[in-house]
Design a protein that fits this description.
Helix 5 (about 110-140) packs antiparallel against helix 6. This protein folds into 2 domains: about 5-110, Beta-Lactamase (2-Layer Sandwich), CATH 3.30.450.20; about 115-170. It is α+β, with helices and mostly antiparallel strands. It has helices at about 5-10, 30-35, 40-45, 55-70, 110-140, 145-170; strands at about 15-20, 25-30, 75-80, 80-90, 100-105. A hairpin with a 2-residue loop joins strand 3 and strand 4. About 50% of the residues lie in helices and about 20% in strands. The longest helix is centred in the C-terminal third of the chain and has 29 residues, at about 145-170. The two termini are about 40 Å apart. Residues about 1-10 have low confidence and may be disordered. It has a 5-stranded antiparallel beta sheet.
């Protein structure tokens, strides 16, 4: 985490960046670090619009300039990860300090954090359902209960596979074979 940015980091699933009057990054939260693959050493001091696709840079510079002048502004951009809503908000500074702005980006669609949570949840459910089913089968079950257990295990596996497909898509990995 970068200096003076604990309050920025508390904005879960939102990419938050504090930018100075020159458009240079002063601080960013974990959402921005993840979305743009940032490292503190290489990023603080970098021009924020340099992280954006070329077709969004000019609009982003204009939105940021408005925020530095004290006006809230916003824009929408699209990149390989999907569509983003960007809000540029003026920050209050002490007298004599240079203006700065908070840039908030929110991706439309599942975020990497949400996708990972879904995968973890799906795998946890498979483990739990498998463990419970194994205990029940060892005790002996009639055919109708065995069928219900099999149906639940199949449904749990289907949900976990769907979450894994979302993760594969997020990572750009090839889709799984349908029979798997």
């Amino acid at each position: 985490m970068t200096e003076n940015s604990n309050e920025v980091n508390s904005l879960a699933e939102v990419c938050a960046t504090v930018v100075d009057a020159d458009g240079r990054i002063m601080a960013f939260n974990d959402g921005a670090r993840e979305a743009f693959a940032l490292s503190a050493d290489a990023t603080v001091g970098t021009v924020w619009t340099g992280l954006l696709p070329n077709d969004a840079k000019e609009r982003a510079r204009d939105a940021l300039a408005a925020a530095i002048e004290g006006r809230k502004s916003s824009l929408t951009m699209t990149d390989t990860a999907g569509q983003w809503q960007i809000e540029c908000l003026p920050l209050t500074v002490a007298p004599g300090e240079r203006p700065r702005a908070m840039v908030l980006l929110h991706r439309h669609g599942p975020t990497p954090h949400a996708t990972m949570r879904a995968v973890i949840h799906g795998v946890t459910n498979v483990i739990s359902a498998s463990s419970s089913a194994a205990r029940m089968v060892r005790r002996g079950v009639d055919a109708s209960l065995a069928e219900a257990i099999a149906d639940e295990l199949e449904a749990t596996a289907h949900h976990a596979l769907a979450a894994l497909d979302d993760l594969r898509s997020l990572l750009g990995a090839p889709k799984r074979d349908e029979g798997v």
